[in-house]
UniProtKB/TrEMBL annotation:
Biased segments, Pro residues type: 97-107
Region feature Disordered, mapped onto this chain: 82-107
Species: Nonomuraea typhae
Name this polypeptide is given: Cell division protein FtsL
Domain of life: Bacteria
């Protein structure tokens, strides 16, 4: 009695899937567990770091109002701080002119 090719193919597919599906499920569950373990480890290290920083942090000075504070007027910038250079068309062998820095720029 012969088994048809379709039945043989179906049985072969069932055998392969019965091995592949649990293997993939096991792999994925192991990956998820390792990610969760890494997250727990990271969270624990963050808590330890925050506790350490909280212990080491000290207030340097207490805020106090300034006495004898003088108010200086705000320094105004010129209205046209950056003016585009005029068009320059060099002749053959001629160098472009040197543009001096603006007068408001400290030296």
């Amino acid at each position: 009695m012969g088994v048809s090719k379709q039945v043989t193919f179906s049985l072969a597919c069932a055998v392969v899937l019965s091995a592949v599906i649990p293997g993939v499920a096991g792999y994925l569950s192991a990956r998820i567990e390792s990610i969760e373990a890494a997250e727990r480890k990271l969270h624990a290290q963050e808590l330890r770091l925050n506790a350490r920083l909280a212990r080491e942090t000290r207030q340097v000075a207490y805020p106090a109002p300034c006495e004898g504070k003088t108010v200086r007027p705000a320094r105004e910038l010129p209205p046209a701080a950056f003016v585009p250079a005029p068009e320059y068309k060099p002749n053959k062998g001629e160098r472009p002119p040197v543009v001096p820095p603006p007068a408001w720029l400290p030296r």
